[in-house]
Amino acid sequence: MARAHNFFAGPAVLPLSVIEETRDAVMDFANIGVSIMEISHRDKAFDKVVAEAQADALSLMGLSAQEYAVIFLGGGASMQFAMLPLNFLQKKADYVNTGEWASKALKEAKIIGEAVEVATSKATNFNQLPRNIKYSPDADYVHITTNNTIYGTEWKTDPDVGSVPLTADMSSDILSIKRNFSKYSLIYAGGQKNLGPAGVVMVVIKKAWMEAKAKQNLSSMLKYKTHVDAGSMYNTPPCLPVFVVGRTLKWIIKEGGLEAIEARNQKKAKLIYDIFDAYPTFYKSAVAVKEDRSLMNITWNLPTPELEEKFITEAKAKKMLGLKGHRSVGGMRASVYNACPMESVELLAKHMEEFYQANK
Ligand SMILES: *Cc1c(COP(=O)(O)O)cnc(C)c1O
């Protein structure tokens, strides 16, 4: 099978070995004689899939099962925009608005309570992260978006927010860069960027915070505690997506863990950013501050929309897909998630060099 070079922002590229393992499990799961789609979620063999995924996620993040719980839910990251404030917004919460997804998180929180836009880079079309943020010392939590999928900015370091619980949407850079995950009280990530297929969101939650602060008077399905207490098996989880996430976590471990994955991601991103820096008036980075450049979503513009069209058409002819920018911002975007192979990024860099020489 000939694989295309996949730069889609999400759903996105997965490791080939994970796809093959999934194909096998779709035919026959764990030599039981049924598909992974046909087995009870209460079966021991499926239990093992969930338990290992939880343990592998915690181990990759350097977190302990005593302190943190991992649950797999439906509804996507967008559901978490509501679920987080439903559970934890009592008085007020601070939101750092760094892009479209962050804005949506803020919008949902505002429906539930006092959500404060504590900082934003909206005035410059989110082309960098806000600096010198003054967090409220009495907030219920702070919410950030560690990687801004559409604009191509990323928090490379985890902010200091004092004693206020820190929460984050890590949908598009989860387990792609080393972080101090223990700084966070809640982390969520939709499956379809760096973990697996669409249809599942992984939530990592500090249990003591949940026990002490989460609201009780909520519908069972919308309460984190329901799912944590039931080991993520309160109702039928999205079994197939959870299986794929589990295989991806094992793939990350096999590749050498976060250290090795980040080193490769740095190398991949540098191949493209070096071209921006060599030809800054042709490949115009959409991000104004170099240190904010995302390792996962690389965004840029060409001098004219016609050239952008041409670049994409010619890239497609070389089997490079998904390079069009998000419909809300235009331009170009290369999403180079964990599973995007070095060869694909090298081919893109080569295309950029050749395209520059032919069209400068
Ligand atoms: C893709 C994305 C989302 C939305 O995810 P859904 O699963 O479609 O709800 C939210 N936040 C970020 C940062 C994303 O990249």
Task: Characterise the protein shown here.
The protein is of the alpha/beta class and 360 residues long. The chain folds into 2 domains: 17-254, Type I PLP-dependent aspartate aminotransferase-like (Major domain) (Aspartate Aminotransferase, domain 2, 3-Layer(aba) Sandwich), CATH 3.40.640.10; 257-359, Aspartate Aminotransferase, domain 1, CATH 3.90.1150. The chain contains 10 helices and 14 strands. The strands form 4 sheets. The protein has a 7-stranded mixed beta sheet with strand order 2-10-9-8-5-3-4, sandwiched between helices. α1 (16-27) packs across α7, α3 packs parallel to α4 and α8 packs parallel to α10 (342-359). The protein is globular and about 60 Å long. The model has no long low-confidence stretch (mean pLDDT 97). Pyridoxal-5'-phosphate binds next to α3.
